[in-house]
Design a protein that fits this description.
Blueprint lengths: L4 E7 L13 H7 L2 H7 L3 E7 L17 H19 L3 E6 L5 H14 L4 E6 L20 H5 L20 E6 L4 H9 L3 E4 H7 L1 H15 L2 E7 L21 H14 L2 E7 L10 H13 L14
Parallel strand pairs: 1-2, 1-3, 3-8, 4-5, 4-7, 5-6, 7-8
Helix pairs in contact: 3-4, 7-8, 8-9, 9-10
Amino acid sequence: MTPQTCLLIGAPVDSGQRCPGCLMGPDAYRTAGLATALRELGHAVEDHGNLTPVPLNRDLGDSRLHALGETIGWTRTLAAAAEAAVAKGLAIFLGGDHSLSLGTVSGVAAHAAAVGRPQFVLWLDAHSDFHTPETTTSGNLHGTPLGYVTGRPGFHGFPPLRAPVPEENICVIGLRSVDRAEREALSRSRIRRHDMREIDEQGIERLIAPFLDRVSAAGGMLHVSLDVDFLDPGVAPAVGTTVPGGVTIREAHLAMEMVSDSGLMTSLDLVELNPFLDERGRTALLMVDLAASALGRRVFDRPTRAYA
């Protein structure tokens, strides 16, 4: 893989859900050796530290939604940071819960539009995150990023979208927990979506390859959003939204190796890591290994991990 400049941007977002601990994620990735792993692959690494959200000093008037003002502040901060970072190198956002993608995806999409390229999103997740503030029953805004970036209505108070991502430019893989409102909205959408049964029946390669081919043919920019709960909780326990039956370590590495082979990725989210729920750092280490696979590490390069 061609050496790149990787910009590490910490996003200790903990406002999108009610299980505290994701704010520790960025430093867990650093402790697990992300920067070292990327440098060993020949990449230059710039760690830009952790961001803080723009504060909102007004009542947004919706008590159903958890930490709405804080999440809007994070969205503003991350959109600006993402747009600036992706213009300089490969931006890697260290989360933080998945509400951070409200900002990261909208920011990189704004940059793509400015340079005249289409934005694509590969969403690796047990959930579709296609809710809006009006449809969510939990009130947790980490379930709304794809709703926001595609321009669904109901995001009052959030920054106006400068460049909505076309639904057909999004591929969600790993689904196994989708509620009725999302299922109905997805059925009316043009989002490409694949659940765990399709992975079992067809294999992950046959699902990802056509999407990557489409990104390449369009000359697109590719944002990859990797949620810890894409993985089976038996191998990645450090997440507050565990759903049994996720992908295996080998399937996850294959997905990231295919991203690497394509040479298309321009930005990456690593989200929903909750170190408070981890076991001797095993989930943080696995997520670092997956990021390294997306950036060129191969089977023979992998370190042996000891957790005892």
